[in-house]
Amino acid sequence: MQFQVQEVTMDMAANMQLAIKRCFVNAHRVIDRFHVQKLAYDAVQECRIKYRWEALDAENEAIDQAKRNKTSYQPEVLSNGDTLKQLLARSWYLLFKHHIKWTAVQKHRAKLLFERYPQLKKAYQISLKLGDIFKLCKSKEQAFKQLALWYNVVEDCGIDAFKTVARSIKAHYLSILNFFINRATNASAESFNAKVKAFRATSRGVRDVKFFLFRLSKIYA
Fold it and tell me: Of the candidates 3, 7, 18, 148, which lies 20 to 30 Å from 118 by C-alpha distance?
């Protein structure tokens, strides 16, 4: 049976790749697109967090300065009611979403955010470009060309987090490009894995593994 498996989806973990290589010798390995895109989203969030710490440091310095001058500190309040550190803290969710799905409040917040942090806007746009490659490309050859262009954008952007993402993609590009053969994803397996973890959490752990698997089979089989 294992020699009949033709395709296996996985993440970028080296131990998973080795296990699949040994167990399913005739299968081509596919790195799930969502694991690749998550790297890009994490890079955007790293930029946001960096600016948030800078805003916190600036606010603390301003508070100390006000104390030395024996004055009261009044933070800048933006047009949406956020202070600068609140703007950066509350923008984390909208940076995971495509801009066409933003609410009116999120559009206003994003406008204020990107006006003050154009580098963060650039990082967000780069993450969208990577997502568009997976959405729009219909073949491995087309995806390979688009990824090459994406690498050029990353090299010119000057954002270290995305350079790390690009290196990770280059290290696994053959398995990433295999996605465009059948557009296979392990989303269903990830979803089931989340259900199993949630079910295990309700039991506060597992002592009798056989009985736990029996219960799983009765509920989810």
Answer: 148
Cα–Cα distances (Å) from 68 to 22, 71, 76, in that order, read 67, 8, 19
Q: Could you tell me the residue range of the domain that residue 95 belongs to?
A: 34-171
Whether residue 65 contacts residue 155, with contact meaning beta carbons closer than 8 Å, is answered with: no
Tens of pLDDT along 56-78?
A: 999 999 999 999 998 998 989 99
Domain shared by 72 and 119, yes or no:
yes
Q: Confirm whether 152 is domain-assigned.
A: yes
Domain assignment present for 177:
no
Q: Which residues contact 98 (CB under 8 A, 6 or more apart)?
A: 128, 131
What does pTM read for this prediction? Answer: 0.83
DSSP 90-122: TTTTGGGS-GGG--HHHHHHHHHHHHH-HHHHH
Beta bridge partners of 70: none
- From the list 99, 114, 123, the residue with the least C-alpha distance to 46 is 123
Q: Residue 58 has which token pair?
A: 């600036």
Q: Looking at the domain assignment, is residue 164 inside a domain?
A: yes
